[in-house]
Amino acid sequence: MKGFIGEFEELVLLTICNLNKEAYGVAILNDIIKRANRKLSIGALHSTLTRLEEKGYITSYLGEPTNERGGRRKRYFEPTQRAIQELNNMKALRDELWAGSKVNLSL
Amino acid sequence: MKSGNPHPPKLADRLLQWFAGSAYMEDLLGDLEETYAIDHSEKGKRKADIIYWQHVLSIILSYALKRRKKNASYSSYFSDHSLSMFNNYFKIAFRNFSKHKFFTIINIIGLALGMSISLLVLSITLAIYKSDDLQANKDRIFQINTSIVDEELNTKTYGSTFHAVGNHLEGKYPFVESVVKIKNGFNPEIKHQGGEMKFHGYFADPSFFEVFSFQMISGNPQTALLKPFSIVLTQSVANKLFRDQDPIGQVVETKMGSFSVTGVMEDLKQTHFLFDVLASYQSFDQLETITNLKTDWNNYRDNYVYALLKPETTQSTLTESLVQTSGIASEFNPNQTIKLESVALKDVVPRWNISNALGIGWDQPSLILFMSIGLLILLPAVFNYTNLSIARALKRGKEIGIRKVVGAEKRQIKAQFIIETVLLSVISLVASFFIFIQLQREFLDLLRASAVMDTSIDFALIGTFILFAVIIGLLAGLFPATYFSRLNPIHTLKGGSLNQSASISHIKKGLFVFQFFMSLVFIIGVSTLTKEYAYVLNKNHGFESENTLAIPFIDIDKQLAINELGSHPDVKSITTTSSLPGIPLSTMTGVTPNEIDTFSVKQIFIGDDFIENLNMKLAWGDSKDLNRSTKNQELVVVNETFMKSARVFNFRQDSLTFTSEDGSRCKIVGILKDFNFEPLDQMIQPLVLRHSISESKYALLTIHSSEIKKTIDELNAIWAGIDQTAHFESSFLDDEIEQAYHFLAVQIKFFSFLSAFAISISCLGLLGMVSYTTENRTKEIAIRKIMGASNKNLYYLLTNDFVKLILISSAIAIPFSYFFYDKLFLYFVLRYGNGLGVIEVLVSIVFLFLVGFASIFWQTSKVAKTNPARNLRYE
Predict the structure, then answer these.
(1) What DSSP string runs through B293-329?
(2) Which of B67, B494, B688, B745 is the most exposed, fewest CB within 10 Å of its CB?
(3) For B636-707, where are the alpha helices, taking DSSP H only?
(4) From the CA of A65, how many Å to the nearest CA of chain B?
(5) Confidence band, pLDDT 50/70/90 cuts, at residue B500
(6) Which residue in chain B has the smallest CA separation from A25?
(7) How confident is residue B422, by pLDDT bands cut at 50, 70 and 90?
(8) Cα gap A49→A9, rounded to integer Å
(9) Does residue B6 register a pLDDT over 70?
(10) Interface mutation target, options B62, B66, B69, chain A, most CBs of A under 10 Å
(11) Is residue B794 over pLDDT 50?
(12) Which one, of B347, B348, B346, B328, lies nearest residue B338 by Cα?
C-alpha cells in the first residue's frame, strides 16, 4: 500500500475516530478548526479524505436525507482496521521516541 | 434564525456545477450549504458569502473533485484525450483509407489538384509580403505618397510625389538623414552587336546605394551615380552586354547619349523595385532641360521620393513635417487639395489602392482576385470530400453505432472524423506540393515581377502550407464529423436505411450543378481563347505577312544593303520600316494640325513601296510619291483614325497639312483604310507613315523561294559582303506577329490548367457519387434484373439523375459564358477579336458530356453487368 500517513492525515483520522458515528464533512471541519485552531477549506478537507480513502484508511457511506442541507445526504466516514493498526504503529513509535529522549521534554 | 434557509450566492453554485459536470457532488454540496447556514447565522450574510466563495473555489481546485470527475466518466479516456486514443484514431483512419482505396484516391487527387492552385497563390502572396524584408534600414525608410482631391471630391493616392518634396525635406528637417529621388522611365535601347537591346530602369540619386542595401559587385557604391551619364547595371544585364569583359569603364550607346558603366550590382531580389539599369539622376537633369524637377511642384507622376530618417525618429515626426510640406504643394496647385503621406518601406507592396506605383504592380485587389481563383478551384474538391463522406454513411454507420454503444461521446466521434480528414488533407498536401512545384515554374515564367520576388521554398512557406492543409482538413471534415456524431446508434446498428445516402439531397445537387457549371465555363474559356489565337494568326491584318522576311539593320550602309539584298533573284521586292506591323509600337509623337493644339499619334518611318509590298489598302489618295518630299513639305500617309482625331482640332481639310513634333511640315497625300497596325488588343490609334530610310530599322523582303533556308544563307552571304562586323538576323513577319501574341498563348495555357483542374475535380466528384449511389442500390438493381429489366433500362435508371444535373448546369453555364467571354473578357483581352462561336460552345459541351458520361458509364456498367444472384447475397 502506498504512502505513510502524513501529519494532517493523522489529524483527520483521529478526528474521525473522536466523532465516531457523527464523522461527516462539516463536523470534521468544525472540529479541526476548533481544536487545532487552523484555517481549513472544504476543498482541502475533502482532498485529504479522498486520499485517505484511496489509501484504504477510511471507508465512507451515505446517510439519510436531512432537512438542514436542502435534503442532501451526508457522507459519513469510518476508519478501517488498517488505519487503527497504522495509528497504533505511529503512536508506539512516538512513545518510544518520547521515552528515549535525552532532552527534558516536559514543560 | 429566519424560517427557511438562507440562499448561498447563485453564481458560485452555477460555477461549481458547470465545473463539476457529471461528478458526484451531493455530499459536497450538502457540506457547503451546511457551513453556509452556520456562517450566515453567526457572521452575517456578507461574510458568509465570502467564505462560501472561498470554499467553492477550494473545491474546484481540489484533488477531491478531480478524482470524482474521473470516476464519473465511465471510460478511462473521457477526461483527457489520451495518446493511445489518438493512436487509435490514426490507426482507424489509415485502415479506412486502405480499405476504401477508390474513395481515398478520388479525394486525394481531388484535394491535391484543388490545393495546388491555392499553394501557388499562397507562395506568391507570401513572396509579395516579404518584399524589402532584407533591407537593412527597412524600419527607417519611407516612401512619400501624394493624395490628390480633385474638383469632384474624388481622392486618388499616387505612389509618386513631387521631387521638390525630397529636396525640401532634406534641407529643412534635420531628422531626415538622407533622401533618394527616383525618376521612372529610363528605358534605354542599348546598341549591342549591330542590334538594340531594350532595358528598363530608373534615374536615381547617388544616395540610392547608401539608403537601400543592394550589394555592388564591382564599382564604388558611393560614387557610382554621382556623375551625369553614369549607369549601373544589374549582374544579368552586365553578363548579357559584356559577357567575360569587365564592364566597369565601358561605354554603352543609347539614343539618349553615351553612358559610362560605373558599377555592377547584384540582381534584384525580394524587393518592390523592378529595374535592369540605373542611371544617375544628374543624367536626367541634363537630358530634360525645360523643367527643373528639383524645384518643381507640379509634376508628381513618375517621380518618387524615399526618405531615410535618423535612428529613433518616429513616423509621426515625418507625418507632421509632411503636413507642413503639403501646404507648400497646395500653394503651387491651387485647384487641387494635396496631401502628402508617408508609407513605411515594408508596406509599399501590396497596397489597397494606389496609382502610378513604382516597381512590381501587385496591389491587394489583384491578390484577392488571385486568391478567389484559387478558392474557386479548391472549394469543389472540398465539397466532393464532404459529399462522398456523407454518402458513405451507410458503410460507416455501423462502426459509429458500435463506438457509441461502447461509450464514445459525440465529441469523440467528431474528433475521430476530423483527424481522419486532416490526415487525408495532409497526405494530399504532399501530392499537391509536387504539382505546385511544376505550376510555379510555369507560372513564374509568365510573371514579369517574378525576377524580384523571393519565391524560394523555405520553412515559413512549408509551415504556411501545412497550416493551410490543416485548415482545409478541418473545413472539409467539419460537416461530415457533425453529421456522423449525430447518428443514432440504435438506428444504424439495426441497419435501418439512412434515407440520405440512397438518393441525392438538394444541397448535393446544387453543389454538382455548381461544379459542372464551373467546369463548363472554364472549358468554353479554353476553346474560345484557342479560337481567338488561331483567328489572330490567320487573320488578314490588313497587310501581307506571309513570305515577308524581316532583317533588322541599323549599323550598316542602308541604301547599299537595300540594293544588294534586293538584287537576289528570290527577293521579289524590298522595302524598309522603323517598326514591324502587327507588333506593339512604342513611339508616340505629337502632331499639331492647327498651330495651337497637339495630339499624340504613332509614327512609322517607311521606305519605298512599303504600302504596295505589304498590300495595304488606301481609302484615298496615292502613296507613290512619298519619296518626293521637299525640304519645306514632307509628304505623308495617315490612317482614317488620324483624320477622325484631326477633325476635332479644326483641321484644315483643304490644305491637308500639319506640323509634326520635330518641326517638319507634313502634307497628307494618302489615307490608309483603318487596320490593326498593332496587335488586336490595342486600340487603333492615329498613325502617320513618313518616308525615311535613315530612320528605318528593318528591311522587309518579299520572298518567293522554293528553298527558304538556302535563300536565307545566300542573303547572309550578301550581308557579310557589305559589312563584316554587323550581325545578320532574319525572321519571318508571321513569326514575329506570333510572338507578339505570346500573351494570348500564355492565357490559353493558364486557362487550360485551370479548366483541366476544374474538370478533373468535378469528374472525380461525379465518379465518387455515382459509384456510391450505385453501390447502395446494388440490391435494388439485382431485383430489377431478376424481374426482367434490360440493361438499357438499368442504365437509364442509374444515369437519369446525373444527366439531368449536367443538363441543368450547362443551361446555366452557356448564357453565363456567352455574357462573360463575349461581352467582358474578350473585350479586354482582344478588342478586335471575333467573339464567341457556337461551335466552340458545342464542342465544349460535348466534351464535358463525354467525360461525364464516361465516368457514369464506368461505374454503372460494373453493377449492371454482374450476376444478380451474387448481388442479392451481397448485403
Answers:
(1) GGG-SS--TTEEEEEEEPTT--HHHHHHHHHHHHHHH
(2) B494
(3) 640-648
(4) 10
(5) very low
(6) B31
(7) very high
(8) 8
(9) yes
(10) B62
(11) yes
(12) B328
A69/B59 CB distance under 8 A? no
Residue B313 amino acid letter: T
State residue B826's pLDDT score: 64
- Could you report the predicted ipTM of this complex, rounded to two decimals? 0.86
Over residues B258-297, the pLDDT tens digits come to 899 999 998 888 888 888 899 998 888 888 766 676 777 8
- Residue B409 pLDDT: 81
DSSP B777: T
Tell me how far apart the alpha carbons of residues A70 and B34 are, in angstroms, rounded to a whole number: 9
C-alpha radius of gyration, chain A, whole number: 16
Nearest-by-Cβ selection for A51 from B35, B54, B63? B63
CB B529 within 8 A of CB B434: no
Strands (E), B680-822: 687-691, 698-703, 731-732
Which residues from B are below 8 Å from A3, CB to CB? none
**What percentage of chain B carries pLDDT values higher than 70?**
92
pTM for this predicted structure: 0.67
C-alpha to C-alpha distance for B368 and B382, rounded to whole angstroms: 20
- For residue B3 the three cell numbers come to 424560517
Quick count: other Cβ atoms within 10 Å of Cβ B610? 24
Provide Rg for chain B, Cα atoms. Answer: 38
Pairing of strands A73-79, A58-65: antiparallel
Once rounded to an integer, what is the mean pLDDT over residues B654-681?
A: 78
Beta strands B201-204 and B571-577, pairing class: unpaired
The residues on B that touch A, with CB distances below 8 Å, are 5, 26-35, 37-38, 54-55, 57-65, 67-68
d(CA B660, CA B689): 12
**Nearest alpha-carbon partner for B839 in B535, B481, B516:** B535
Largest Cα–Cα distance in chain A? 56
Mean pLDDT computed over every residue of chain B: 81
Task: Dump pLDDT digits (tens) for B741-787.
Answer: 777 777 777 777 887 888 788 888 878 777 777 777 777 888 888 88
Tallying the residues shown for chain A, one arrives at: 107
DSSP B383-400: HHHHHHHHHTHHHHHHHH
Contact B350, B129 (CB under 8 A): yes
Backbone φ, ψ for residue B241 (5° rounding): -85, -40
Q: Which residues of A touch B28 (CB under 8 A)?
A: 25, 42, 46
CA B745 distance to own-chain centroid:
16
State the Cα–Cα distance between residues B186 and B257, nearest whole angstrom: 12
Q: Is A16 exposed, middle or buried (0-12, 13-18, 19+ CB in 10 A)?
A: buried
- Give chain B positions within 8 Å (CB) of A30: 38
β-strand partners of B636: B668, B690
Q: Facing residues of A24 across strands?
A: A76
B529: its cell numbers? 481563347
Q: Does the CA dihedral B392-B393-B397-B400 come out positive or negative?
A: positive
Contact (CB, 8 A) for B20 and B69: yes
CA distance B860 to B851: 14
Q: Is the bond into B350 cis (omega within 30 degrees of 0)?
A: yes
Q: Which residue has the higher pLDDT, B505 or B805?
A: B805
Quick: pLDDT tens for B674-699. Answer: 877 777 767 778 888 888 887 788 88
Query: A42 vs B30: CB contact, 8 Å cut-off?
Result: no
> Mean pLDDT over residues B125-139, rounded?
87
- Residue B21 cell numbers, joined: 459536470
Helix B742-776 × helix B364-391 angle, to 10° = 20
Give CA–CA dist B591/B602, Å, rounded: 10
Q: How far is A86 from chain B (nearest CA, A)?
A: 23
In eight-state DSSP terms, residue B355 is B
pLDDT at B874: 56
pLDDT above 80: residue B63: yes
